[in-house]
């Protein structure tokens, strides 16, 4: 074993003989001046005592561990080095001091490398520089570069304590700004140390090594030196270097946070027996229905005597009405008390309508004139109409939460800025990716996309500068430029506009862009290296390259790379495929503000310029540009409305023409008599009645102060045409088929027919009016205004139909009876020898073919099964409807905004700013109340800033991308005293003894000195907190003091009072949403932010005894548009249920208290609405305010499809349900088909060619569904349902009919 040990030791002894055992303890001492800066003088002697009390005091403040055993220990640094050290720690203090352990560990690294008495054990000079100037020890050499070896325990401890420290004003981590990773990826301990030791961050290169074993380096003397890793203790971020001060907060130290829990609970899908809930429910309903219906049908056929007959039906079987026996009994017994009341009510209605019909027919001119006068007065209200195009007014209720939040934010902090944005991609055929050589002596390369080729950036700068130079003509020899309207955060010290662009890293200067540093043989730094450095830390005043250029923008602030670039992964900014140019313009709360007019004028000029550039120059320059301005969406909506005017007009004209033509009788078509039978003029008068009703509705709503919207103009006429034309066709057709008695006058005939038809018209119209008025109870503005306009329009349409139109019918009948040609009424033709009333083709078809075929037994069963299956399918998918409104659908085809919205989803790397606003009430000078909102050392994890930080840690669920910028944390850092030199807070005293603020950039005011701020456990005393807050909010950030609050927080804090009387009112804490791509993302993001704000509010009120009235709310510029979607599903059900309730009540009352008919009406209309949900799912129609309006309208139009047939069935005296269903279908079917279906189809087809996609999706598609499902349910399902389970005959009505027939027989002498 000894021999073995000897053999193993031999090579080690040989190796050690080659190493120089350096006995000296220092590697430098003092400073030697060179042309660039002071560098350390080479010194390899023992450490020396400083003998300078001032320097020792400064050093003890920064490096207490060096003084563990002595108040004046021997050190490897002198007072000049201490002074330089203290001056260089100013910037790190501003970045890291919010976490005491991180800051102390960072200080210790430079304490040990600068002054450690045994420095030579872990450091050695690698190169030296000859020196002839003065030095403390008459040194003739200075240090050129040095190697440093740190243990992994110390290096990792330093990094771990600092990796989570926040830099609030930039909404990012401080390590991201201090690590300089650029496009190389994430920060690591070695990357960070390499950045700190880089020549641009140090007076000479320092090569850090992390190792747990000794490392051999070749010193400047060309000898091998073994360095033992420095293994001093580092502080955990969860502990405090000073026991009297708090440790890091949860925001800056993950170990201080409570156990991790999901901020957003994972949604659990509703399932039953592992089947999706709604599918299970729908399937269960279907199975139960099939079993029940099948059983009833089997029972029916087993007990039926005649399988295919309709005349021998057994009493009480499913599908049959009252039997002959019950019919006979009804004749003898009569009905119950409810049936008697119902009959009296119906008779009263028929008598009233008959009386009124006779009056209107006898005095047509008076009725028409009075009707026109009243309508004229009402329509005059259009003069006072206010058309609303503001999306906020359209979609957000004045009392809604987000609307109130927006109003408060706008009036308190000014509205969110107007943004003019371009997303610019490069043509890969013209601008190819390339490998860029990294600065010498590196032998590596960086891959850069074509968007970072120098000439492409020059073209980009050309475009940006041209836009910046645009001026808009305001008239009166006045022009407005970008500088007149833009946001200038450092005004008046810096009047440059905020333009977010990578070109700001070069201050928008082409010369700076082209600049590079060479050593005759190699390029040491150029624009790519500068971009790489600036994307790592945009706030650098001197980058980490040999260029030593500033990264700050021309407007004085940093430009975050994720704002200016898009289409990259991770931190690979130089591989971005898109540049994002954003011009920020001031916005104004008052819409009449002249500055707002200037902003809109400039935006118009900007859009004109960019449109021309895209058309004429972009392709040649290899650019693909998507662009937008703040006014773009409003402009395009207006353009879409104008472009669709022709489409809408053609649609309505087509319906008008069809109505005018379809009312007439075309048989016999080859005789002159057809010219008399036509009712073109009557049809046009019917259309005029519809227009007058719409005009009167608009007028009366304008009188009442309701705004007019484009939805009203587009939808209400369609609705009233559906309702109005149906009633017109029913009334005209009924008169056309009626035979006048011998002794009956025209007026009496009209009165008698109106007595029969009027109650049915009243039923449908009153049902719709009540439904719409009740629908107006909603708070959703678009639905509310639609409901009121529709209710009044339907009401006026009904009133005009039973007054004006009845009078017009009387005049038209008079014309026809005199054989005058329609339209040309002065022309008479010879009457035919005989004339016979024609039933009409459609009426004959329904009576003789359709009603017979539909109501055969096997067809009825099939219809019920098919409609049942379809209804269950619709139920199964109702919860799968998308909620929201794709903005691109509201744009006209080919709009540039569509391209822009598409590019946003692809290339933007961050979402819109999100503000959490704290209303007045907190006393921010008191520690307990500071703790409610702050996020630095000593702040609880559940503070406002802490909760935002925790939410930002789970962006996929919270949609919050970054921790918040907390003005109070940066204010603490700004107030902190400096160990040497001046602090950020400084002032001068004038001759009157008045303190005046000295900004950190002020080099001219004499006598500036640091503020005398007293601290208690790391926080300023209340009086000092108040005293200097206003100065902080007016201090511009500089390299000497990056915590100046003017740029980041100048608008974020509202103050009252001055000096010690200063009080903080409202303030906000800003973060960013993640990129939101789908409507669901926006809805979930809004929902979470509202919930988070409520949690903050509850936490503050719970933890602070004096904060019970504190309010917190979230605000982002888009919130106000998406709140409607949080409740749109609930609003939909509420509106539909209210409408259904109105249908039920009105039907019950007007059908003579017939509850069964009311139930059937509600069931059928519900199935039509349910079918619309199925259509929306299959045809990709989302649920929003527009589709909700259409669903409410569906109820109204469905009443027209159903109620006439139900009433006709209910009042029919025939014996069986099948007979009554056939009679109702024959009587009303043709009018419903002609009056609603054909009329609407003519108009709907035109909408398919609309320029705006919103018309195609929400009007064409949904109108097709409304008409199709209304037709199928009204003319197929409803008659079949009535034939099975329709209400029994009113016995009192039947008895009354029998008595009338008996009396008629007696009077005719035929009874016996």
Would you give an account of this structure?
With 1312 residues, the protein is α+β, with helices and mostly antiparallel strands. 52% of the residues lie in helices and 10% in strands. It is built from 42 helices and 31 strands. Strands 12, 17, 20, 21 and 22 form a 5-stranded antiparallel sheet that branches. Strands 29-30-23-31 form a 4-stranded antiparallel sheet, with helices on both faces. A 3-stranded mixed sheet has the order 3-4-7. α21 (632-662) packs antiparallel against α23 (680-703) and α27 (841-854) packs across α40 (1217-1247). The longest helix has 37 residues, at 781-817. The radius of gyration is 43 Å and the shape is elongated. 48% of the residues are buried. Residues 1-22 and 305-332 have low confidence and may be disordered.
**Biggest sheet, open or closed, and with what strands and sense?**
5 strands, antiparallel
Count helical runs: 42
User: What is the overall silhouette?
Assistant: elongated
DSSP strand tally = 31
The level of helicity is: 40-55%
Task: Enumerate the spans where pLDDT stays under 50 for 5 or more consecutive residues.
Answer: 1-22, 305-332
- Report how far the terminal alpha carbons are from each other: 145 Å
| Mean of residue pLDDT values | 84
Strand content: 5-15%
- Rg is 43 Å
Structural class: alpha+beta
Give the key terms:
disordered N terminus; five-stranded antiparallel sheet; four-stranded antiparallel sheet; 1312 residues; alpha+beta
Write the topology of this structure.
Elements (H helix, E strand, L loop, with lengths): L1 H17 L9 E6 L4 E5 L10 H10 L16 H10 L1 H7 L3 H16 L7 E8 L10 E10 L1 H11 L3 E2 L4 E2 H6 L9 H9 L8 E5 L4 E4 L5 E4 L43 E2 L2 E2 H26 L21 H10 L3 H26 L1 H16 L11 H5 L5 H13 L4 E9 L7 E4 L7 E4 L5 H15 L2 E5 L2 E4 H4 L13 E2 L9 H5 L2 E2 L4 E3 L1 H10 L24 H4 E2 L11 E8 L8 H23 L6 E6 L3 H31 L10 H5 L2 H24 L6 H28 L8 H30 L5 H37 L23 H14 L2 H21 L18 H12 L5 E6 L8 H4 L13 H9 L2 H4 L8 H9 L10 E4 L5 E3 L11 E2 L4 E2 L2 E2 L1 H11 L13 H4 L3 E4 L6 E10 L6 H25 L8 E4 L3 H32 L4 H24 L6 H27 L5 H31 L5 H33 L5 H18 L4
Parallel strand pairs: 4-7
Antiparallel strand pairs: 1-2, 3-4, 5-6, 8-9, 10-11, 12-21, 12-22, 13-14, 15-16, 17-21, 18-19, 20-21, 23-30, 23-31, 24-25, 24-26, 27-28, 29-30
Helix pairs in contact: 2-3, 5-6, 9-28, 10-42, 11-25, 11-26, 12-23, 12-26, 14-37, 21-23, 21-24, 21-40, 23-24, 23-26, 24-25, 24-26, 24-39, 24-40, 25-26, 25-37, 25-39, 26-39, 27-40, 28-38, 28-41, 36-37, 37-38, 37-39, 38-39, 38-41, 39-40, 39-41, 40-41
């Amino acid at each position: 074993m000894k021999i073995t040990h000897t053999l193993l030791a031999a090579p080690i002894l040989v190796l050690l003989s080659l190493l120089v055992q350096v006995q000296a303890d220092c590697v430098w001492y003092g400073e030697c001046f060179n042309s660039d800066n002071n560098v350390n003088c080479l010194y390899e002697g023992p450490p020396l005592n400083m003998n300078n009390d001032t320097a020792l005091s400064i050093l003890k403040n920064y490096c207490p561990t060096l003084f563990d055993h002595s108040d004046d220990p021997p050190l490897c640094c002198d007072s000049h080095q201490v002074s330089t050290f203290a001056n260089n720690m100013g910037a790190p203090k501003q970045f890291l001091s919010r976490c005491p352990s991180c800051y102390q560990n960072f200080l210790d690294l430079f304490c040990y490398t600068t002054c450690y008495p045994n420095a030579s054990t872990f450091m050695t000079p690698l190169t030296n520089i000859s020196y002839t100037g003065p030095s403390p020890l008459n040194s003739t050499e200075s240090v050129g570069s040095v190697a440093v070896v740190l243990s992994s325990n110390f290096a990792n401890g330093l990094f771990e304590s600092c990796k989570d420290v926040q830099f609030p004003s930039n909404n990012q981590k401080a390590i991201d700004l201090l690590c300089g990773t650029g496009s190389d990826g994430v920060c690591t301990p070695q990357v960070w140390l390499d950045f700190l030791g880089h020549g641009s961050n140090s007076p000479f290169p320092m090569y850090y090594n992390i190792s747990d074993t000794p490392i051999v380096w070749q010193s400047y003397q060309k000898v091998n030196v073994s360095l033992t890793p420095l293994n001093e203790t580092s502080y955990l971020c969860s502990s405090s270097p000073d026991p009297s001060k708090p440790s890091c907060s949860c925001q800056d130290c993950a170990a201080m946070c409570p156990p991790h829990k999901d901020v957003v609970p994972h949604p659990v899908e509703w399932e039953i027996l592992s089947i999706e809930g709604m599918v299970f429910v729908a399937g269960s309903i279907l199975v139960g229905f099939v079993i029940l219906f099948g059983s009833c049908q089997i029972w029916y056929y087993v007990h039926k005597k005649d399988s295919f007959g309709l005349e021998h039906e057994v009493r009480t079987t499913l599908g049959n009405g009252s039997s002959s026996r019950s019919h006979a009994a009804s004749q003898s017994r009569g009905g119950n008390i409810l049936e008697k009341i119902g009959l009296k009510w119906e008779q009263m209605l028929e008598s009233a309508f008959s009386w009124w019909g006779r009056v209107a027919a006898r005095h047509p001119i008076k009725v028409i004139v009075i009707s026109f006068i009243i309508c004229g007065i009402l329509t005059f209200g259009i003069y006072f109409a206010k058309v609303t195009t503001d999306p906020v007014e359209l979609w957000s209720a004045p009392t809604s939460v987000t609307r109130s939040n927006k109003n408060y934010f706008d009036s308190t902090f000014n509205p969110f800025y107007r943004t003019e944005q371009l997303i610019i991609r490069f043509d890969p055929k013209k601008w190819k990716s390339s490998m860029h050589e990294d600065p010498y002596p590196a032998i590596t390369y960086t891959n850069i996309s074509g968007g970072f080729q120098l000439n492409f950036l020059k073209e980009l700068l050309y475009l940006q500068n041209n836009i910046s130079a645009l001026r808009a003509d305001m008239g009166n020899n006045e022009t407005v430029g970008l500088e007149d309207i833009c946001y200038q955060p450092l005004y008046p010290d810096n009047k440059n506009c905020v333009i977010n662009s990578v070109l700001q890293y070069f201050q928008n200067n082409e010369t700076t862009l082209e600049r590079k540093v060479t050593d005759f043989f190699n390029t040491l730094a150029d624009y790519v290296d500068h971009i790489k450095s600036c994307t790592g830390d945009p706030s650098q005043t001197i980058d980490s390259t040999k260029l030593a250029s500033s990264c700050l923008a021309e407007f004085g602030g940093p430009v975050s790379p994720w704002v200016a670039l898009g289409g990259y992964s991770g931190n690979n900014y130089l591989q971005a495929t898109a540049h994002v140019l954003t011009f920020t313009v001031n916005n104004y709360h008052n819409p009449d503000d002249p500055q707002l007019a200037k902003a809109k004028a400039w935006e118009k000029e900007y859009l004109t310029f960019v449109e021309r550039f895209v058309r004429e120059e972009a392709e040649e320059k290899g650019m693909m540009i998507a662009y937008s301005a703040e006014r773009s969406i409003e402009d395009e909506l207006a353009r879409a409305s104008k472009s669709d005017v022709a489409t809408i007009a053609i649609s309505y004209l087509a319906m008008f023409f069809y109505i005018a033509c379809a009312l007439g009788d075309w048989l016999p078509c080859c005789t002159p008599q057809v010219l008399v039978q036509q009712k073109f003029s009557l049809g046009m008068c019917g259309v005029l009645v519809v227009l007058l009703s719409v005009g009167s509705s608009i007028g009366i709503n304008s009188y009442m102060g309701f705004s007019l919207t484009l939805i009203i103009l587009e939808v209400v006429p369609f609705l009233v045409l559906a309702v109005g034309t149906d009633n017109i066709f029913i009334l005209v057709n009924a008169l056309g088929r009626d035979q006048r008695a011998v002794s009956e006058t025209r007026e009496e005939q009209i009165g008698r027919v109106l007595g029969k038809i009027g109650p049915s018209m009243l039923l449908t119209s009153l049902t719709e009016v009540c439904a719409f008025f009740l629908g107006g109870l909603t708070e959703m503005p678009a639905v509310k205004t639609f409901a009121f306009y529709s209710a009044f329009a339907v009401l006026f349409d009904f009133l005009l139909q039973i007054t004006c139109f009845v009078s017009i019918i009387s005049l038209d009948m008079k014309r026809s009876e005199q054989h005058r040609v329609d339209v040309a009424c002065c022309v008479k033709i010879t009457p035919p020898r005989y004339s016979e009333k024609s039933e009409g083709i459609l009426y004959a078809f329904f009576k003789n073919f359709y009603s017979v075929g539909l109501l055969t037994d096997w067809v009825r069963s099939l219809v019920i099964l098919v409609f049942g299956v379809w209804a269950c399918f619709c139920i199964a998918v109702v919860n799968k409807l998308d909620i929201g409104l794709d903005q691109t659908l509201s744009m006209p085809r080919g709009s540039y905004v569509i391209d822009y919205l598409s590019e946003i989803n692809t290339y933007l790397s961050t979402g819109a700013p999100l503000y959490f606003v704290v209303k007045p009430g907190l006393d921010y000078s008191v520690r307990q109340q500071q703790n409610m909102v702050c996020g630095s050392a000593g702040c609880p994890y559940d503070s406002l800033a802490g909760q935002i930080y925790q939410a930002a840690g789970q962006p996929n669920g919270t949609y919050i991308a970054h921790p918040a910028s907390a003005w109070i944390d940066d204010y603490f850092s700004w107030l902190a005293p400096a160990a040497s030199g001046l602090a950020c807070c400084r002032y001068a005293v004038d001759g009157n003894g008045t303190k005046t603020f000295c900004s950190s950039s002020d080099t001219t005011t004499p006598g500036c000195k640091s503020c005398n701020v007293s601290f208690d456990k790391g926080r300023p005393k209340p009086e000092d907190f108040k005293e200097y807050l206003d100065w902080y909010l007016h201090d511009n950030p500089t390299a000497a003091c990056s915590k100046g609050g003017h740029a980041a927080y100048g608008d974020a804090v509202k103050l009252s009072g001055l000096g010690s009387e200063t009080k903080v009112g409202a303030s906000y804490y800003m973060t960013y949403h993640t990129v939101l791509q789908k409507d669901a993302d926006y809805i979930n993001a809004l929902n979470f932010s509202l919930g988070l704000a409520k949690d903050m509010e509850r936490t503050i009120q719970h933890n602070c005894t004096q904060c019970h009235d504190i309010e917190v709310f979230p605000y982002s510029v888009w919130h106000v548009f998406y709140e409607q979607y949080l409740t749109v599903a609930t609003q939909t059900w509420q509106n539909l249920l209210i409408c259904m309730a109105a249908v039920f009540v009105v039907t019950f009352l007007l059908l003579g208290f017939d509850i069964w008919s009311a139930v059937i009406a509600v069931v059928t209309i519900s199935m039509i609405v349910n079918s619309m949900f199925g259509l929306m799912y299959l045809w990709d129609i989302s649920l929003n305010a527009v589709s909700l309006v259409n669903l409410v309208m569906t109820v109204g139009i469905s009443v027209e499809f159903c109620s006439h047939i139900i009433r006709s069935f209910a009042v029919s005296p025939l014996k069986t349900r099948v007979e009554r269903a056939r009679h109702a279908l024959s009587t009303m079917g043709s009018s419903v088909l002609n009056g609603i279906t054909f009329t609407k189809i003519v108009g709907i087809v035109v909408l398919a060619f609309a320029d705006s996609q919103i018309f195609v999706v929400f009007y064409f598609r949904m109108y097709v569904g409304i008409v199709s499902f209304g037709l199928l349910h009204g003319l197929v399902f409803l008659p079949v349902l009535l034939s099975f389970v329709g209400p029994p005959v009113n016995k009192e009505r039947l008895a009354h009919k029998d008595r009338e027939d008996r009396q008629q027989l007696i009077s005719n002498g035929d009874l016996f």
